[in-house]
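1st attempt posting a full record on here, be nice pls
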Amino acid sequence: MKVIAGLGNPGSKYEETRHNVGFKVIDQLSESLSIPLNKQKFNGLYGIGEVNGHKICLLKPLTYMNRSGDSIIPLMKYYKVDREDLLVIYDDLDTVPGKLRLREKGSAGGHNGMKSIIQHLGTQDFKRVRIGIGRPEPGEAVPDYVLKTFRPDQRDAITEALDRSAKACESWIQKPFSQVMNRYNG
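the predicted structure (as tokens):
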């Protein structure tokens, strides 16, 4: 089974914020792959389905961003999922709004959700899709910035990035991640 986890914060208060792009991609995948998010366990909301003979789990951790590993790792242990079959989608401050960066491994880069997952897994070697949200203006605190909605001039780029992220995830179901990276990076 492959697990695709989108990071975010639960609740309507956070729904449209920059920090919730991972949740948005999972919602799109749930619809496009016809995998309803109808199970609540492992501190998360998830659904399991089959796509072209491949078993897929879509997960939205409900632990709040800083404790994402508290949801992802127990689910992986329960279903006996190897880290090679984990793909995490999250927001990236160091990338231009709307740009994607797909990687097979790497540091948390200051992202608390990724720090939690790395700590729980004990390794940085797992696949990820980073969706650029850009940096705050000088003087604006990062926590305030990531918990705000996108500016009107950023919305088209973000909508396109969410679509491309979902397509990259769908592609990974069938193809090696290196091929997916070559097609969707940038």
